[in-house]
């Protein structure tokens, strides 16, 4: 049965986007491919608002999170973690042989610049965090955190996981000045999984040039050499790229400011519903995600609730990590709008009424 996805990812892919990918295959060493690659790069730069390099590779975003660790951390980093994906980012660095000092907060709490005071010492090569923690629904002000990092240690690079926030939240890229910002195709781009992206600074590239043991697939120097020629280092997911090119056109027509407002409206509606019908939103006030409503479910039988929703043609996400048994999650990413969210809320209200019978 086909369902509309209000999940944390992969998210709902509209019919027109699916059709945009239904095109004859082209080889990735052809003139046609170079034109496609160049078109996507130009639109990504415009949508994101950056002059930095943007790399695309086949895979999930995790592959370029590994790439950022291998190219950017010489020896030691500071990792901020307030949830499952912050923990994963720490683990990614550790499993690539880096030492990580972990600054941890309980799930649901955010990080402010004050939390970093005195923590970015001289031996810290890099600081990394998840901008939008999908296990807790916490959204951080990455630009403010990055400014604090630079004020303490200008040589420390900043690496941001923006997987569930890019294209839904204004990252103020000119203020952020991060050295790597990683995201994927299956979240707010509303495409199937399969493309990983990294926005990479000149400072990161200088680091990469001197770094050893970067692997092949995650060597930023190799990626840049091919990217500068409008080619991919390895075989790219061409069909997905047709869809990406189409989606970026839609996004730019909508306008990024309008897109950010749309996501804000959807997030506000979910928060209001959670306050009225459940036990509120999980994250602390002031740090609420604009793409993932993590809802305190109290004594709700989520499995039964979700089963009813699925019968109505809709799907949301269970809680995750330490909050799995106390929350559920509603994703409002991609091409969803307030009308879709109201449809979901009506169906959730109906499900709650059915459960009383």
Query: Which assembly state applies to the chains in this document?
Result: single chain
Which strand order does the major sheet show?
2-10-9-8-5-3-4
Structural class computed from helices and strand pairing: alpha/beta
Q: N-to-C SSE series?
A: EHHEHEHEEEEHEHEEHHHHEHEEEH
Number of helices: 12
* Share in β-strands: 15-25%
Number of strands: 14
Major sheet: size, sense and barrel closure?
7 strands, mixed
Summarize model confidence as the mean pLDDT.
97
Question: What is the molecular shape?
Answer: globular
- Low-pLDDT runs of 5+ residues are none
| Helix proportion range | 40-55%
End-to-end span in angstroms?
A: 26 Å
- What Rg, in angstroms, do the CA atoms define? 20 Å
Question: How would you characterize the overall build of this protein?
Answer:
The chain has 357 residues and is of the alpha/beta class. 41% of the residues lie in helices and 17% in strands. The protein has twelve helices and 14 strands. It has a seven-stranded mixed beta sheet, with helices on both faces. A three-stranded antiparallel beta sheet has the order 11-14-13, covered by helices on one side. A two-stranded parallel sheet has the order 1-12. Strand 13 (317-318) and strand 14 form a beta hairpin. Helix 10 (256-277) packs parallel to helix 12 (338-356). The longest helix is centred in the last third of the chain and has 22 residues, at 256-277. It is globular, with a radius of gyration of 20 Å. The chain starts with a strand and ends with a helix. The model has no long low-confidence stretch (mean pLDDT 97).
């Amino acid at each position: 049965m086909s369902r509309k996805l209000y999940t944390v990812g992969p998210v709902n892919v509209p019919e027109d986007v699916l059709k945009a990918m239904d095109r004859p295959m082209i080889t990735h060493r052809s003139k046609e491919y170079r034109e496609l690659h160049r078109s996507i790069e130009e639109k990504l730069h415009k949508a994101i608002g950056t002059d930095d390099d943007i790399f695309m590779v086949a895979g999930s975003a995790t592959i370029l999170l590994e790439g950022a660790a291998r190219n950017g951390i010489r020896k030691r980093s500071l990792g901020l973690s307030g949830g499952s994906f912050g923990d994963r980012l720490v683990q990614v660095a550790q499993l690539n042989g880096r030492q990580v000092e972990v600054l941890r907060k309980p799930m649901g709490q955010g990080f402010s610049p004050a939390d970093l005071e005195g923590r970015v010492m001289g031996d810290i090569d890099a600081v990394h965090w998840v901008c939008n923690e999908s296990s807790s629904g916490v959204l951080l002000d990455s630009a403010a955190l990055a400014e604090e990092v630079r004020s303490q240690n200008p040589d420390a690079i900043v690496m941001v996981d923006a997987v569930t926030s890019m294209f839904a939240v204004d990252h103020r890229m000119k203020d952020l000045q991060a050295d790597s910002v990683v995201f994927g195709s299956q979240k707010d781009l509303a495409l199937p999984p399969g493309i990983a992206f990294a926005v990479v600074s000149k400072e990161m590239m200088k680091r990469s040039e001197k770094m050893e043991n970067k692997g092949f697939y995650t060597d930023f120097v190799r990626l840049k050499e091919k990217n500068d020629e409008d080619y991919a280092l390895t075989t790219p997911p061409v069909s997905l790229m047709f869809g990406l090119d189409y989606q970026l056109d839609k996004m730019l027509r909508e306008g990024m400011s309008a897109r950010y407002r749309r996501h804000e409206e959807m997030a506000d509606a979910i928060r209001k519903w959670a306050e009225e019908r459940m036990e509120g939103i999980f994250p602390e006030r002031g740090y609420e995600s604009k793409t993932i409503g993590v809802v305190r479910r109290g004594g709700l039988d989520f499995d039964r609730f979700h089963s009813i929703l699925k019968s109505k043609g809709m799907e949301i996400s269970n809680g995750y990590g330490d909050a799995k048994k106390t929350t559920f999650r509603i994703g409002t990413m991609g091409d969803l709008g307030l009308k879709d969210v109201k449809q979901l809320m009506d169906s959730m209200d109906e499900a709650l009424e059915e459960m009383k019978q």
